[in-house]
Amino acid sequence: MTELKEYVDGLFRHQYLTPELKDLKEEILSNMTAKRDDLLEQGIDAELAAEMAKKSLTSIDSLVDGNQLTDLGKYRFECAQTLLLHCILFWIFSLPLLLTAHALISYLGLLLTVISGGICLWQGRRPAEGVAFLSVSASRRRGKMAWLIWIVFFAVFTGMMAALTFGSHIWFGRPIRIDGPYQMMNVGVRFYLPLLTIVIPVTFSSFTRNLRKCSVQEGRDE
Questions:
Q1: Element (H, E) at 35
Q2: Are 103 and 18 in a shared domain?
Q3: Per-residue pLDDT tens digits for 134-154
Q4: Element holding 200 (H helix, E strand)
Q5: Residues 183-220, buried b or exposed e (16+ Cβ, 10 A)?
Q6: Each residue's pLDDT tens digit, 64-73
Q7: Which residue, among 35, 119, 123, 1, has the nearest Cα to 73 in the 3D structure?
Q8: Domain boundary among 55, 80, 99
Q9: Nearest in space to 4 (alpha carbons), one of 21, 20, 25
């Protein structure tokens, strides 16, 4: 029993155990145990019976809801294209920073665009990688986590910038004044910088859409 339990635990080691998956895990263990007991009743050696029971199920990928048979090469190329597109958008929207003291952010956007372009070209020239089961549910969770982290970051960063920019005026009851377009630009940049990072959660969310686009049928012709 312990040997089979360890084997089943190994099958689920990369899965997030929802209540449904826990039930599936218990069902698989129960079926394997029953199969091993049947083999033992037939006079088969205990060690061999356990091995035969384990060989009856070598992967749970096709059994887990949310797993999808995916064309790996196509999926990785789609993700590389998405990354390139979002790096280009980040660079374009960072161009106004060239007129400020934060010009390095724009140069960083250009560098990321060049790097992601190289990755896209390299991925497009790679040979076919076949298919594999990938988890749509896990991809969606990563996207939601990226959005959650970004929202917290954006709220904290903008709150901190607002406190540094307007805190003393509010504390001492002085009116908030912005003298001229240059000061307005400096204030605006402080809040514009964290907004640029929205490209990160948007990219993670796009990976899930890419994954759905690259689904293949298990019974397809090779």
A1: helix 19-41
A2: no
A3: 888 889 889 999 999 999 999
A4: helix 199-213
A5: eeeebebbebbbebebbbbbbbbbbbebbeebeeeeee
A6: 767 888 999 9
A7: 123
A8: 55
A9: 25
Q: 100, 188 in Cβ contact below 8 A?
A: no
The answer to whether the beta carbons of residues 14 and 66 sit under 8 Å apart is: no
Per-residue pLDDT, 219: 44
Q: In this structure, what token pair is assigned to residue 143?
A: 């996207």
**Residue 75 corresponds to which tokens in the numbers above?**
């999926």
Please give the tally of structural domains in the chain: 2
- State which residues form the domain around 87: 67-213
* Ordered alpha helix ranges (H), 42-102: 46-55, 72-94
Residue 26 burial (10 A CB sphere; 0-12, 13-18, 19+)? exposed
At 209, list the tokens.
């859409």
Which candidate, 84, 112, 100, 110, places its Cα nearest to that of 193? 100
What amino acid is encoded at 26 in this protein?
E
**Does 128 fall in a domain?**
yes
Cβ neighbours for 170, distance < 8 A, ≥ 6 positions apart? 176
Calculated CA dihedral for residues 170, 171, 174, 175, nearest 10 degrees = 0
Whole-angstrom Cα distance, residue 217 to residue 70?
9
* pTM given for the model: 0.71
